[in-house]
Amino acid sequence: MDNLLSDGLELMVFGMGFVAVFLTVLVFATTGMSAVVGKYFPEEPAQPKAKKKAAPAADNDDELVAVMTAAVHKYRS
Amino acid sequence: MDNLLSDGLELMVFGMGFVAVFLTVLVFATTGMSAVVGKYFPEEPAQPKAKKKAAPAADNDDELVAVMTAAVHKYRS
Amino acid sequence: MDNLLSDGLELMVFGMGFVAVFLTVLVFATTGMSAVVGKYFPEEPAQPKAKKKAAPAADNDDELVAVMTAAVHKYRS
Amino acid sequence: MEKLIELFLASGAYNISGGQIVMIFVGLLLLFLAIKKNFEPLLLVPIGFGGILANIPEAGLAYSAVENAAHFAVPEVMNSLAAALNITSTDPKEIINAYHNSSAAEHQAAINAALDGGYANGMLYNFYSVAIGSTAAPLLIFMGVGAMTDFGPLLANPRTLFLGAAAQFGIFATVLGAVGLSSIGVMDFNIQEAAAIGIIGGADGPTAIYVTSLLAPHLLGAIAVAAYSYMALVPLIQPPIMRALTTDAERKIKMHQLRHVTKLEKVLFPIVLLILVALLLPDAAPLLGMFCFGNLMRECGVVDRLSDTAQNALINIVTIFLGLSVGSKLSADKFLDLQTLGIMSLGIVAFCIGTAAGILMAKLMNKMMGGNAINPLIGSAGVSAVPMAARVSNKIGLEYNAQNFLLMHAMGPNVAGVIGSAIAAGVMIKFVSG
Amino acid sequence: MEKLIELFLASGAYNISGGQIVMIFVGLLLLFLAIKKNFEPLLLVPIGFGGILANIPEAGLAYSAVENAAHFAVPEVMNSLAAALNITSTDPKEIINAYHNSSAAEHQAAINAALDGGYANGMLYNFYSVAIGSTAAPLLIFMGVGAMTDFGPLLANPRTLFLGAAAQFGIFATVLGAVGLSSIGVMDFNIQEAAAIGIIGGADGPTAIYVTSLLAPHLLGAIAVAAYSYMALVPLIQPPIMRALTTDAERKIKMHQLRHVTKLEKVLFPIVLLILVALLLPDAAPLLGMFCFGNLMRECGVVDRLSDTAQNALINIVTIFLGLSVGSKLSADKFLDLQTLGIMSLGIVAFCIGTAAGILMAKLMNKMMGGNAINPLIGSAGVSAVPMAARVSNKIGLEYNAQNFLLMHAMGPNVAGVIGSAIAAGVMIKFVSG
Amino acid sequence: MEKLIELFLASGAYNISGGQIVMIFVGLLLLFLAIKKNFEPLLLVPIGFGGILANIPEAGLAYSAVENAAHFAVPEVMNSLAAALNITSTDPKEIINAYHNSSAAEHQAAINAALDGGYANGMLYNFYSVAIGSTAAPLLIFMGVGAMTDFGPLLANPRTLFLGAAAQFGIFATVLGAVGLSSIGVMDFNIQEAAAIGIIGGADGPTAIYVTSLLAPHLLGAIAVAAYSYMALVPLIQPPIMRALTTDAERKIKMHQLRHVTKLEKVLFPIVLLILVALLLPDAAPLLGMFCFGNLMRECGVVDRLSDTAQNALINIVTIFLGLSVGSKLSADKFLDLQTLGIMSLGIVAFCIGTAAGILMAKLMNKMMGGNAINPLIGSAGVSAVPMAARVSNKIGLEYNAQNFLLMHAMGPNVAGVIGSAIAAGVMIKFVSG
Ligand code: NA
Ligand code: NA
Ligand code: NA
User: Fold this and answer.
1) Is-contact D353 D175, C-beta < 8 A?
2) CB spacing of A11 vs E172 below 8 angstroms
3) CB proximity E425 to A under 8 Å
């Protein structure tokens, strides 16, 4: 039984310690990442438009479909 | 072969009988349930609104998203 | 090793040959099918409407729902 | 040149059997009925297509690894299969026979031998195992159907449950017919097969597939095709019977408006039904349990995203696999059989008897309630075939009284029929499988 | 007549045990809480319904083929099971026991014996094996949650990660409590069970289910029910603790507006997190890997159709199966136990300690940052329970300062808590399972 | 302290190998190409992410239970694995080797030994087994692609099928190249591997994955990455070849308007194609069968809800699992190999030869039809890579004649290329796997 208790205690100390260490490292990593992004890859002011550009594949497909549909209609009318 | 026929006959009698008994019990249970509901839990007249209240989780989430979106816009503008 | 090379060569000859034969047969089959369709099952001019008729099951269900909804409303009002 | 001959010897054109040609035409016929005649297309398009795939010669899409090994019958593989199955014959037919009757351990050993021989399960066989062999697919379809079903009309008039009960007489009468034909030697069905055939009369696809997969999986192709075809034929099959069994006066009976049903009643109904099933017939619990679960998700109003998924993405995905899996049972050696003709004939008898029983019960109830309370035309809807049968009741009713909308009244027996055939399924699984 | 008796002897009404009655009421209670009180209905409706299904007498929906065979205890089948498991006793209980402790080969032999005896896995057992036994379902839910999570507020103020760390103290304190109670003989949990109970304090459903399925699957029912119930109770559990541990002045602290976070930061964050996990704690890789994958699909902007599916059709389908599978663990013999009471009590303790630890850490950070930078009310959001806990922080904050919207500030610790409990899960799997 | 050391010894940072570091960078590169350069993101985001997950040290996500057991190499487990596999050596490498070459029964025994030792399949390994090992995922993707494909342009001008045939020359030329390089000792591919590499030239992802999973599953990572990367590079790879092989006059040829195609023709086409496959090449039946099934669901007009699901929820779900599963084959020990370089080089050769063959065939056809009927620029679309290759034809065409829209004309060979490479796949499976 003592063994169980010491296992629990150990788990608490190491577990909580590890969680704290990991998230601390993550704070530094995240802060560093944000700093690098902010310095070397600042976002252009016109952000909403940037969002739209993000899915060019889909856009292209839409465009393709539009062209195809137009073509089909033309040939049929 | 006779055995097969008697099996079939037995299945018909007991099967049909059981279906009849079960659905009869269900008629009574349903009628009883409706009576209890009608007596102790009558529906409020304004039913359409009641419907809307039924999914508060989703509503709350929508509200949350709205708040978050508003907040984000505010901080960015 | 020679064996491998001859396997590869054989695969190329027979593979490419088979692809060519298959697609040639498909050209004839498709052309024939289109000819038969064009001759015996020409499309009616009013094509858009034909499209709508194509899914009567769904339509019927919609109609059913509409009737049911109407009925429910009538009984409740 | 050698390769060319090899290619030809392995081609479908060289290997195709008469049976496969016939079955490919059967598949095309099902596609025609589904696409042009709108016979339950959601099921018959995948079933018909799966039937064609199952009959592609040499592809073995519908066969297990062991069946594929037996088809090619390489001597060493036959030897190791015979050893795995503890038989001395290496004849492919006897191996297949031994395989189907083997113990679970021998079964696994045979599979191992086939895999070692380089054979694999066909694609459709895998789909069948996952979707139907596990019984998951019909249960998930039933969950989706539950999520689509509105029990309001039934709750407004619970006595229509009697109509749903009566219409199940078609199931049991057909079972008796099947064993009768077997007794006099015309057909050769055992009691399990007879029960599975009878369930066609339940007019409920997933129930029929579930019962058949448990009691007589080798008949699944014929029974599923019969069930869905006859459901599609409801508008043709039922009206003559309905006209024959009712008087003009009865057909003109105008029923009372249905009372309003509260949300709470709708929420409680699936729970009440589940508890009755739990107390009275546990063997119906998988089918009706999933059905009630779907209905509760629909009515409780707090899990709409789950209910939507059950009614759309999930049921559609399952339908695709279910249809292809049923199609895998349309391979020539499993379908082309005198039994299939017997099944098709008995199936339509089941439908007709069920329809008649529902109408007669409705007439009886009408008499007992004073002769002006129930239009007997709604009795035929008790076979289920939701919502087609209810629509037929409505249509015939309108023919005789243009102001008499029976649709809502017929929806009660219609959904009652679903419950009734699931109960009948449970009884048969209980008595016949054990 | 014989058949009638047979039917009655096989009915639920005849066979139902007291435990099953109790558990059916527990299932109904869960449905009531979910539907009427809106307790995490997406999970508790399927769990509650699955719990009822699992307790239908004689149906054996939640049992494996071997368990079903042992329930009916036909002598020949018991003999072949005993032979398969290499034991001499044919007592059903001993057979079940031997089955659970058997080697993989014996396990397979026992399954074969049960199949040969005509028994099959119950439907819910199959769902459990596929969804939870494989660990796939909680991981896929986590992927969907990742696809729904916006890390913007966290990225704007990464220090809130400390709050997410502190709140995990509830997990480990509860583990200690569980082993303490066992040491003094009040309860009887081993270290695996204690760890699984502690994870309730993580306030994160899929994490709790994942950890429990690995460390103590027999407790899954109680732990999942506790986790989801307490998450639903967050608006009741947390406010008193929050008020007790904060001063009026602290509750009125107004936090700075969050800075704008760029798209690139959001895209890089899941990758940074994944690489840290890879370097520091591989045991957390399945959970956090799928979470980061979902979030990357969300933020990268080029796979919106995959992200939508992960957030909708896929997560809904998985939720249905996950819920029913958890419900299968609510069978009377597995749930009705003193342990369950212990689990429910320790679970709420875990929640309270986690909440308190988060608030105290927030107070400490506020002190260290000059006393006016962090409103300690956001600390309680560190337990996760997204987004409920953040909303509670916001609500209490508004009570004391009607102009102070804490919601966005509380979202940071809230999502940090998800990461924190996944890390805690990885540590426990690492130390406790091996 | 002991635990701290244990944690460190089990951490990724301590255990990571050079190969894993390289492969994580490869995964990041794929994510970069997918997200920033828009290289087939629907596949390369999951593949890249899966590749990173597969290389997390000690997590063993991409390994089977036996491989995981061999990695940790606990002596007792090695002993029981050696016993299960009937070898005397307990060296982990030899055990893995014996495992991969074991009979099905030994295979199962080894798995049992690993499970008894406490090891389990990694998550990605399970995904791979279910999605690709069963061949289900590429077939379901093909069904979805079929449901998205409009054969109208092909039906309007069936001769464009010849272009789709010619472009498959790239496949077979590459096979020859691969065996040639092996003959002279530069590389070391057997005929199965050569065939799988050649299929990259088919420019069709699911076909390449299907063939490779059957003929050379150990190369799946490299081949899938090559196939999707080169498809994304079509707009860079093809134009120079197109310009080099055509004259200015040819590039300006204006093609006739396509005739109107009736609905019935579109419905019948997948059936005609299926029957030809059934008669001529059963080995292509799984691929083209599912493709035709998807297309029939699209065109028949009566199962729109199934078609929608096949094109959306189902294909998205399958894509997620397919991508992660392919990623699981990017583990360092399987990917970092001279073979991978060979595959990447041969793959691009296959693409170029296929493009050239398509154009030359188009020139030939144009000559034979009077020199003004077919713009050779549409020949390059015969490699498939739908719809990218057709769009490239259109773009180059517009450069030389601003009034000449080739898109619809190029869609014919484009979809013909899909059929052509599926046929080529069937031929290779037929000749090379047996
Ligand atoms: Na019925
Ligand atoms: Na947490
Ligand atoms: Na191609």
Assistant:
1) no
2) yes
3) no
Question: Which chains have 3 or more CB–CB distances shorter than 8 Å to chain F?
Answer: A, C, D, E
Name the DSSP letter for residue D232: H
Residue C60: CB atoms within 10 Å: 14
Domain assignment present for residue A4? The answer is: yes
* Structure confidence at residue E434 (pLDDT): 54
How many CA atoms lie within 13 Å of E185's alpha carbon, on the beta-carbon side?
A: 0
> Helix (H, G, I), strand (E, B), or coil: what is residue F137?
helix
**Domain for residue C77, yes or no?**
no
| Residues, CB within 5 angstroms of ligand 2 (ion) | E 202-204, 384, 417, 421
Query: Cβ contact (<8 Å) for F408 and A72?
Result: yes
Q: Which residues contact F218 (CB under 8 A, 6 or more apart)?
A: F329, F334
Triad D397, D400, D405: Cα angle to 5°: 35
Query: CA E63, CA F199: separation in Å to the nearest integer?
Result: 47
Q: Which two tokens stand for residue F96?
A: 């893995």
CB contact under 8 A, B68 and E408: yes
| Alpha-carbon distances, residue E124 vs D135, E43, E131, E313 (angstroms) | 11, 16, 10, 21
ipTM: 0.92
The three-state secondary structure class of F268 is helix
- Centroid of ligand 3 to alpha carbon of E274 (angstroms): 36
Minimum-distance CB partner of A56 among F38, F258, F405:
F38
Chain A interface disruption, residue of F1, F2, F3, most A CBs within 10 A:
F3
Tell me if D257 and C75 make a contact (CB, 8 A cut-off): yes
pLDDT averages per 10-residue partition of chain F, 434 residues: 75 88 96 94 96 95 95 93 94 94 93 94 96 96 96 95 95 94 91 95 94 95 93 94 95 91 96 95 95 98 96 97 95 86 92 95 93 92 92 94 91 95 94 76
Return the number of other C-beta atoms located less than 10 Å from residue E101's C-beta. 10
Token duo for residue E9:
């002897």
Residues of chain A contacting residue E194, judged by C-beta atoms under 8 Å apart: 8
B7 in a domain, yes or no? yes
Q: Which ligand is nearest to the CA of D287?
A: 1
CA distances from D7 to C27, E2, F172, F378, F422 (A): 21, 63, 17, 32, 16
Q: Which chains touch C (3 or more CB pairs under 8 A)?
A: D, F
Q: How far is A41 from chain F (nearest CA, A)?
A: 13
pLDDT at residue A50, rounded to an integer: 40
From chain F, the residues in CB contact with A64 under 8 A are 387, 391, 407
Helix axes E92-100, E75-85, angle to 10 degrees: 30
Put simply, the chain E residues between 242 and 261 with a CB less than 8 A from any chain A CB are: 261
> Which residues span the domain enclosing C30?
1-44
Residue indicated by tokens 């899929």: E206
Structure tokens that stand for E201 in this block = 């304090």
> Is-contact D68 D60, C-beta < 8 A?
yes
Q: Residue C18: its chain D contacts at CB < 8 A?
A: 7
- Which residues 6+ apart lie within 8 Å of D145 measured at CB? D206, D291, D294, D315, D386, D418
How many domains does one find in chain B? Answer: 1
Q: For residue E210, report the distance from its CA to the centre of ligand 2, in Å.
A: 14
Peptide bond into F57 cis (omega under 30): no
Note residues around ion ligand 1 (Cβ under 5 angstroms).
Answer: D 202-204, 384, 417, 421
**How far apart are alpha carbons E354 and E360 in whole angstroms?**
10
Confirm whether C50 is domain-assigned.
no
Residue F130 DSSP class: I
Contact predicate D175/D199, CB 8 Å: no
